[in-house]
Design goal:
Layout: H1 17-21, E1 29-32, H2 43-55, E2 61-64, H3 71-79, E3 83-87, H4 93-100, E4 105-106, H5 114-119, E5 126-136, E6 142-144, H6 151-157, E7 158-166, E8 212-218, H7 232-250, E9 261-263, H8 267-278, E10 284-287, E11 290-291, H9 293-300, E12 304-309, E13 311-312, H10 316-324, H11 326-330, E14 333-335, H12 338-341, H13 344-350, E15 353-357, E16 360-362, E17 367-368, E18 371-372, E19 376-377, H14 384-390, E20 393-397, E21 401-402, E22 407-408, E23 410-411, E24 426-428, E25 433-435, H15 441-452, H16 455-468, H17 483-491
Helix pairs in contact: 2-3, 3-4, 7-8, 8-9, 13-14, 15-16
Bound molecules: ligand 0RQ.
Ligand 0RQ is lined by residues 36, 67, 89, 111, 264-269, 289-290, 356-357, 359-360, 369, 372, 378-379, 381-384, 402-403, 407, 409.
InterPro entries: AcetylCoA_hyd_C, AcetylCoA_hyd_C_sf, ActCoA_hydro, ActCoA_hydro_N, NagB/RpiA_transferase-like, Succinate_CoA_transferase
Keywords: Hydrolase, Transferase
GO molecular function, one term: acetyl-CoA hydrolase activity
Length: 497
């Protein structure tokens, strides 16, 4: 154990997860490590949920994380009824259900905002930070595990810190992190990253020793799921995306090795990155948030030289692969706090190409990434807004239909808007590509309907649009604009009977 916990004075802070969980009181704000779902604490939240269920205390906490976390945290605490307020992003089913029935107050935030909001005191005080680490150094510095998320800001601003030292993660992860914390305005300086490969900070997190109230041992792996195999629709979208990028190179608007790439989460995003492996692009770089299995494929195929992100979100197989070749991957992957991986300043400077997935898009190019039928929260905006607004080229992909064709992903008006037409430049479905750059709203509508809509909905959308043509700058019939959603909720399909 002294290999993982090198600061001798900390050895007497080792306690059971249940003892550490007893430090958590009703109404506290608990901020944890963890990002999509990598590097989150597991033992203490499980013990807390067990304690709440056993004691029936009705204890509730506000839970802040980096992004989504695993079942041991969001799932256990949601099922124990222990989450009062949750931010900034989640993907766990029980947590989502409780958000959607109004039991959990959810604050869906841009990921780059969270550390600042904590630092500035906008979210009140953080009582306890629970951080997963792979080790603690002789000086008492924390070596984080598979993600960085908001961990540095949480550690600095929390009143107390609990560290879960997870021996399951390889200790060779040490050295992969690059930890830089911006000062508060008016003293903030430019973030000195001019290339995705730049290292600008420390490989550890400093913490005042008297803040560390408990150290808990763990060996539970991150619960990252494997992706399903890539279907025909996703493959077609990936092909359309590659074709678009090739054309941009041909037109001289992108260099041959493109610009740093960001890719979102989910099965579609995974397929899109997978498509790059088979493309002829090489010497690529990644400046993104989530480093998924497909990034290992890109590194292995020699396509990617450097990948910067905030988490190492690898499936069990991907983690095995990573561990077997850790030295090579370590030289090509950098993990940063999410306020740096998602920093608008850095994204704009590097000229990142953002590629995110939409739930639905409207004919004028507004994008809904979060709320199904305008009212059911899916996951959250995550980093898609940080990247889209600041990208060199912002791209959204979506299959043209959902739920076996009963929903058109292109609708007259989005039922919730996360990314406005001002930020969205390219829409890609399996049908084709709509390039919205430099187009007026009417021209955008034509490009989207002609290129991206499924044949079952094309005439319906044309009819909707043609009725409004030339009426105003952006034309809608307010009685019809959301009628497609309403029809689906009433009849189970957006199609005309
Ligand atoms: O429903 O779960 O019941 O099957 O939405 O859709 O097709 O499985 O897509 O896994 O790629 O996720 C936008 C949610 C896509 C994700 C989203 C239904 C569909 C299915 C999921 P089921 P798929 P994916 C980086 C950037 C926001 C955050 C982000 C996401 C379910 O990419 O959360 O981009 N993005 N962050 O059937 C009704 C429609 C629908 C629909 C799909 N039009 N109407 N239901 N669905 N389209 C990462 C981070 O920031 C951390």
């Amino acid at each position: 154990m002294t290999e993982r916990i090198q600061k001798k004075e900390y050895l007497n802070k080792i306690m059971t997860a249940m003892e550490a969980a007893s430090l958590i009181k009703d109404g506290m704000t608990i901020a944890t490590s963890g990002f999509t779902p990598a590097g989150y604490p597991k033992e203490v939240p499980k013990a807390l949920a067990e304690r709440i269920k056993r004691e029936g205390t009705g204890l509730k906490i506000n839970l802040f994380t980096g992004a989504s976390v695993g079942d041991e945290l969001d799932g256990e605490l949601a099922r124990a009824g222990a989450i009062k307020r949750r931010l900034p992003y989640q993907t766990q089913k029980d947590c989502r259900d409780k958000i959607n029935c109004g039991e959990i107050d959810y604050i869906d935030m841009h990921l780059s905002h969270v550390s600042d909001f904590v630092r500035y005191g906008f979210l009140g005080k953080v009582d306890i930070a629970i951080i997963e680490a792979i080790a603690i150094t002789e000086e008492g510095y924390i070596i984080p595990s598979t993600s960085l998320g908001n961990t540095p800001a949480f550690v600095e601003n929390a009143e107390a810190v609990i560290i879960e030292v997870n021996t399951r993660h390889p200790k060779e992860l040490q050295g992969m992190h690059d930890i830089y914390q911006p000062l508060k305005p008016p003293n903030r300086k430019p973030i000195p990253i001019i290339s995705p490969k730049d290292r600008i900070g420390d490989t550890f997190i400093k913490v005042k020793p008297d803040k560390v109230k408990a150290i808990v041992l763990s060996d539970i792996p991150d619960s990252v799921k494997s992706f399903p195999s890539i279907d025909e629709t996703s493959q077609q979208m990936a092909d359309n995306l590659i074709g678009f990028l090739e054309n941009e190179v041909k037109k001289g608007r992108l260099p041959e090795n493109l610009l740093p790439l960001q890719s979102g989460v989910g099965s579609v995003a995974n397929a899109v990155l997978g498509g790059l492996v088979k493309s002829k692009f090489c010497n690529l770089s990644i400046y993104s948030e989530v480093i998924q299995d497909s990034v290992l494929d890109l590194i292995d195929s020699g396509k990617v030289n450097i990948a910067s992100g905030s988490s190492l979100t690898l499936s069990p197989k991907g983690m095995e692969r990573f561990c077997n070749n850790i030295k090579e991957y370590k030289s090509k992957i950098i993990l940063r706090p999410q306020e740096i991986s998602n920093s608008p300043e850095v994204i704009r400077r590097l000229g990142v190409i953002s590629m995110n997935t939409a739930i639905e898009v409207d004919i004028y190019g507004n994008v809904n990434s979060t709320n199904i039928m305008g009212t059911k929260m899916m996951n959250g905006i995550g980093g898609s807004g940080d990247f889209t607004r600041n990208a060199f080229i912002s791209i959204f992909t979506t299959p043209s239909t959902a739920k076996a064709g009963s929903i058109s992903s292109i609708v007259p008006l989005v039922s919730h808007c996360d990314h406005t037409e001002h930020d969205v430049q390219i829409i890609i479905t399996e049908q084709g590509v709509a390039d919205l750059r430099g187009l007026s709203p009417k021209e955008k509508a034509k490009a989207i309907i002609d290129n991206c809509v499924h044949s079952s909905y094309k005439d319906m959308l044309r009819e909707y649009f043609n009725k409004q043509m030339n009426k105003c700058h952006i034309s809608h019939r307010l009685d019809e604009a959301l009628s497609w959603h309403y029809k689906f909720l009433q009849t189970g399909t957006m199609k005309n009977s």
